[in-house]
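Something for you to look into today, if you have time. Could you write out one complete protein record for me, on any chain you like? Leave the record below and I will have a look.
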Amino acid sequence: MPYRLPSRQTFAITIAVALLASAMLAVARPVVIDVDGQRLDSDVPAITTAADNAYVPLRSLADALGAETTVDGENIYVTRAHESLRIRVGDTRAAINGEPFTLKHAPFRVRGRVMIGLKPIAQAFDVRATYDTRTARIDILTPGIGQAGSVSPPTAQ
């Protein structure tokens, strides 16, 4: 079968789609994570969904909060002072300070990093975690360190 050049209509549609995709990528910006006013840098950025859920890299965030992360088989433990969180990748069952807790969304891996919603972090470590879709920003504030006077429920998971 001999090669035929694409029609003008096909060519125009291809160009329009390419320009639209380029424009969307140009205005997209990565989500910034701030912990007590300090920017958190990680090799895996936060992930957000159309439903305004935000997921953050667990170890990077734990380190920024001064917590210790250990892995024992399938269990991942994050401990800070007398507060602890136990999770498993792909499992909605977790424990906060030894008490069973059900996650809305199971932790998952992205490029080898465990990603977790903001709500379990806020509950386990008594911090205020908010995600502002308008500014593409996640703020995590520790009472007494950041600007958090009292801990309020997180706005995203």
